[in-house]
Specification:
globular, Archaeosine Trna-guanine Transglycosylase, Chain: A, domain 4, single chain, alpha+beta, 2 domains, three-stranded antiparallel sheet
Amino acid sequence: MSQIKERPILFSAPMVRAILENRKTVTRRAISPKLVNRFDEPRGPADVASGYPFVECEDGYCPATNLCPYGQTGDRLWVRETWYCDHFEVQKGPYLQPVDMHDLDQSREDGELVYAADGLAPYEQEQPTWKPSIHMPRWVSRILLEITDARVERLQDISEEQAKAEGVRLYTDHSELGDWWHVEGIETYSADPRKSFELLWNSVGGDWNANPWVWVVEFKRVTP
């Protein structure tokens, strides 16, 4: 039985809020062109059914999902997000956990350890510069995810249900007009959640029209 592995994964503040609100249970990440170039062409329906796309491995060909950098079903992802810690030892770096910060829940409650995704009250807005998510150490992370599925798809193959699971928000101010969807921070609304996800993808530097191959990683929150 393979050992469960933990890996870090970065999320923006809006996506962190979507995870905390149980609106986001899947993420799509572009696959490296170097790996895509190794995809072998399917030779028929049987190849597709066996796990296409696949790449050459030591024992012949294997599904590309075997090389997913985010892990396999059962593995875990700890979320890196923008943060700040008002503790002199942490401010000096390299962000090792101070011995007197053993109760992290209390540190969060006291405002000593804060996260940009939670927002700041007016009196707190003079906090020093936020620490980038890429610099978040494991001990600071408050969100742990367990992978429930990992697969490879073309970006535009996303379904409406999957678009909703990506964290797009239902706009409820005018519910009498029907369901409208949008992404936090993007003031464009659509009756199609796929369109809202398209805008989200493009907003982070992606190119929807290129229809790239993507890792599709589904997850559920677990207790850290």
